[in-house]
Write a structure and sequence with these properties.
Layout lengths: L1 H11 L1 E5 L11 E6 L6 H11 L4 E5 L6 H7 L3 E5 L3 H16 L4 E4 L4 E4 L8 H11 L3 E8 L19 H4 L2 E2 L4 E5 L5 E2 L5 E5 L1 H6 L7 E7 L16 E12 L6 H11 L3 H13 L13 E2 L3 H6 L7 H7 L8
Helix pairs in contact: 1-4, 8-9
């Protein structure tokens, strides 16, 4: 009951700013995003998802002041506004967006600093990918976050003028150091018994933060039995697909240091204050540089399959007649 009550509160405090383009292609997922001051990421975000084939975008703005709203309206996205407190209502706002799209609709909830990729995405178009999930009886698909960073893993006091404005070009490196893998065993989630989850990664390798979970369930086809996005990483009563996707995570950008200090100073979110505070403390006395031997340069989704970071079943590839070719 509390779950639905919070969604109802969000609904009462939400207003529609702009009704964007609606493709009418109901087999394609709708991209959902809760955002505040996302201009550092939005151009790359929109380009990435449109290149993958997504057409409909619904954003919930939580108080932007950096041009985000103008950008989203000009990009013909649907934009809602809600000023409720982020810490208390973050999940209810996400759930509101999913329920807004309705039963039987695929939605991809991603943060503005996350670029989602699925296995074989250069040869399997988005419609075929979702059709596979439908035919196999799946209503959710897992994804693992991979933190991206520049050649010199250093934080500055603001964006550098030399940046291209394209996230993939400015932050092309990742590491598997510090990454811990464990079975994904939840009594309220059905899967093929081969699903797994990650935690740690860069957060553990560089900053000693061990309990940062990196696996999510962003792609969901809502039905009446589900409890969606009850945390950042879990939805209940879903049937997970026999594959996993990647979320390239562009958190550690040149603006990270300034944002981290602002979050700690504003005390907007208790968890975030603790998390960013520990990173800032670790950085006292100078920047941290990633060792060259610990870093990979990202090439394509096939690279992540070969490294074992994500996986896909033989049934998936057989169904789509693809041999795991690289994704551009």
């Amino acid at each position: 009951m509390a779950h639905h009550q919070k969604i109802a509160v969000v609904k009462r405090h939400t207003s529609l700013l702009h009704k964007g383009f609606a493709s009418g292609h109901h087999e394609l997922p709708v991209v959902l995003c809760l955002v505040k001051n996302g201009m550092e990421h939005l151009p790359s975000f929109m380009n990435h998802y449109r290149e993958l084939g997504f057409e409909d975008f619904v954003f919930m703005d939580n108080g932007s002041s950096d041009g985000t709203l103008d950008f989203l309206v000009k990009s013909n996205c649907t934009v809602y506004q809600c000023s409720l407190g982020y810490e208390e209502y973050i999940y209810a706002m996400k759930q509101f967006l999913v329920h807004l799209c309705g039963q039987g609709c695929w939605t991809l909830y991603v943060d503005v600093d996350e670029l989602w990729l699925y296995p074989g995405c250069n040869t399997v178009d988005l419609s075929r990918f979702v059709n596979y999930l439908d035919r196999a009886g799946y209503n959710a698909c897992q994804a693992h976050m991979l933190d991206m960073f520049p050649k010199n893993f250093q934080f500055s006091d603001g964006p550098k003028d030399s940046n291209t404005g394209v996230l993939g070009e400015d932050y092309p490196f990742f590491t598997l150091q510090g990454l811990k893998k464990s079975p994904f065993d939840r009594y309220f989630i059905q899967d093929d018994g081969k699903r797994f989850q990650y935690h740690g990664g860069v957060n553990q390798h560089l900053f000693g933060l061990k309990d940062i979970y990196l696996s999510k369930i962003p792609l969901i086809k809502l039905d009446k039995n589900m409890l969606v996005h009850i945390t950042s990483h879990i939805s209940k009563h879903v049937v997970l697909a026999d594959l996993s996707c990647a979320l390239l995570h562009y958190k550690f950008t040149n603006a990270f240091f300034v944002k981290a200090k602002k979050i700690v100073d504003e005390k907007r979110d208790r968890w975030a204050v603790d998390y960013y505070g520990k990173i800032l403390k670790k950085m006292e006395g100078g920047a941290i540089v990633m060792a060259e031997q610990d870093a990979f340069q990202f090439n394509d989704i096939q690279q992540l399959l070969q490294l074992g970071f994500i996986d896909a079943s033989d049934a998936y590839y057989a169904s789509n007649n693809t041999n795991q070719k690289p994704c551009p």
